[in-house]
Amino acid sequence: MTVQRLSGKRYDTLEPVMISWEGDRISTVEPLRGEHVTTEDLPYLAPGLFDIQINGYGGIWFCKKGLSVDEAIQAIEPFLSAGVTKLFPTLITSSHEALVDGFSTLNQVCQEYPEIAQMVAGCHLEGPYLSAEEGSRGAHPLEHIRPANWVEFCKLQELSGNRIKLITVAPEQEGVLDFIPKAVNSGVVVSIGHTAANPEQIRAAADAGARMSTHLGNGAQGMIRRHPNYIWEQLAEDRLHCCLITDGHHIPASIAKVAYRVKGYERMLITCDASGLAGLPPGLYESESVDVEILEDGRHVIAGQRQLLAGSGATTEMCVAELVRMVDEISLSDAVDFASRNPGKLFGVETGILEPGGLADLIQFEYDVDAAKIEVLKTVVSGNERFSKTKGET
Ligand SMILES: [Zn+2]
User: Fold this and answer.
1) Which CATH class is domain 3-46+354-388?
2) What is the end-to-end Cα distance of the chain in Å, rounded?
3) pTM higher than 0.85 for the full model?
4) CB 363, CB 380: distance < 8 Å
5) Does domain 48-347 have CATH number 3.20.20.140?
6) What is the pLDDT of residue 35?
7) What is the CA(194)–ligand 1 centre distance, in A?
8) Where in the chain do CATH 3.20.20.140 domains reside?
């Protein structure tokens, strides 16, 4: 095996280092020596990012009926340039047939393309057992929202090759509180989202084994009672990790700050929640289930209004930089960990770590704190360089 190397400053300590690896394992992390070495000039080195909620890219949704192998690959590979080395392709509420197609195809892709399988750490089923309430269901099509169905889930799990590691449910939907323990016992993490549940139902879901809140503060009604409500309840529920969409549009800085204060470093996760339209220019995009407008400011909204968002056009590294901009007390190191280490721990997925023996899932990047911008230069997945560019290259 040949030894490969990357140099830069560690994202956590800012120490100039040279990281060497053989195969998919880091062999050494050594201080970078030399008179020319100044911390300022060096790019950053960090673990590859792990995003648990990616709906697709470039016009392809993973829940598209008839999803092809090529389409799935086309929607996964662009995230390499965002520094993403691990992701959960996410299928949102759809007909049973569309979910069958999506999971079957993703399973096939992982079996036939090892380099894609290295990235697909699992799948996220967001829905269809969600709230039918306007606002809470967000862009999830009402016609396909349905009561929890363990038999349907098992079928989808089988077709996915046992890859569904996360399901988002609304506790108040019929059958969900019975569904949760079954899913948990089968090794799936259950998360609360797209809900209008009352406090008792949130608590019952946590009692049943729910462990996360999906994009807290979004997938919620525009007007809710001041208290109690399902946002306060989830913030205060210590058994729930909190995942936030920190693209700068989905939540204000105050929510990110409060969530960080109450959940603490260990229970924070971030995602870009990229919609299947991420990467496309502004305009109106029609689909079978929902029409989405991409606005000039980059927001993706349900067509015909401006308040309800339909996923984001951002990618994960943008959400890392944006979170640091939004909340003074969150460091770059913490924000990276919220999109690598922390989802890794919650889902039992090995992520990159800058230590000998660690998985060589690595990124090298430039970071402009004033512009809140991360420019990924190199992405290494399981020891293989999968993306590379020079600074400023488009
Ligand atoms: Zn959602």
Assistant:
1) mainly beta
2) 32
3) yes
4) yes
5) yes
6) 66
7) 6
8) 48-347
